Amino acid sequence: MREAVRTEIDDLISRKLPALVALYQDFHADPELSGEEVQTARQLAGELEAAGITVTMEIGGHGLIGVLENGPGPVMMLRADMDALPVQEETGLPYASRRPGVMHACGHDINMTALVGAAGVLASVREAWSGTLLFVGQPAEETVAGARAMLRDGLFTRFPRPTCAVAVHAGPDIPSGMIGTRSGVLSAGGESIDITVRGVGGHAAHPDQAKDPVVIAAETILALQTIRSREISPNEFFVLTVAAVHGGSKHNTIPDEVTMKANLRYHHHPVREQGLEAVRRIAAGAARTAGVPEDLMPVVTVIDESVPPLVTDAGLTGRCSLAVEEMLGEGSVIEIPPLSGSEDFAVYGQEGVPLVYFRVGTMLGEKPGPYLHSSRFAPDQTAAIRYATLVLVASALACTGKE
């Protein structure tokens, strides 16, 4: 990247930063849950259109795509997620959420603001690149449904198919000014599992006449933890959490069934299959041990909230990382270990699009503050927006830039 271009980009971002911070505060104060991003999408679309981007809305729900053409060349997708979380904000910030029980606790407000910043910069330096840029505002990342919904609605058929894609995300465990990434598996795949433990209800004074699903569920929960410790290779990543248990309604009544909600995380598909098979086997085994008849065996359902591991492209990651270091300085990009969290940006990779993904450091001081999804998550907005915007711009130029 030529020095004159770097200087122009840095100057553009510096001039735009006050307006971007104000935009971030607007996004943060008015968050919307997954699938409800009506006003958020309108505001994001308006900002992109003001930068000269042609925007189409209502793709896969409230998703949108902005197209900026600039001659022949590669097609690069820059993606930002738009949805917030059902969290009651406790930051005390003057621009805290005005919506009770809803908060941008995962930094998607940063991602959208950086997308707007990058759009404005790249529209202003057209002489430095050639090709087509796609600016995607994606809904419903937190329910890992938005990417698939946009694809089903023609994201890659109604618009130019990207030759590569980039996304950024806040990294509260990475020092501010540093950018984390890796090639290969970067974040975990995830499955949400419903388990219905069935039994025979009855009177609490006569448990011998019942098949108590509460006890069976308790034994099942404990037994499930042996999958990690006794069945999965110690060299593989695997996490299984039972996060909700519901059963019964009266102190003296044994219910007919108990429902459980579990979450499974993995880095490699064979481990997923091994884990799911073990969940089914252990649930059925606990029921049979309790004498539950075969027609009342537990029902294990993998629900439609699945996401594959996020696998980044080595060549693309290396090229974009070098471009980011040119902008921010040598050593500013670090390799991070694979993450246990999940991200539906991975779904675009399943469609054959090479991906690069960056975690923008937001940690101030020597110790991390509140992590993502915390009611007290409050990154340094100005630094996060600046660095996230620079990362998107540098990555775009790495893929579409002129020599």
UniProtKB/TrEMBL annotation:
Binding site for Mn(2+): 106, 108, 142, 169, 373
UniProt keyword list: Manganese, Metal-binding
Gene Ontology MF annotations: hydrolase activity; metal ion binding
InterPro entries in UniProt: Amidohydrolase, Bact_exopeptidase_dim_dom, Peptidase_M20, Peptidase_M20_dimer
Cofactor: Mn(2+)
Pfam families with a match to the protein in the record: M20_dimer (PF07687), Peptidase_M20 (PF01546)
Source organism superkingdom: Archaea
The Peptidase M20 dimerisation domain, residue ranges: 192-284
Cofactor note: The Mn(2+) ion enhances activity.
Protein name: Amidohydrolase
Species the sequence originates in: Methanofollis formosanus
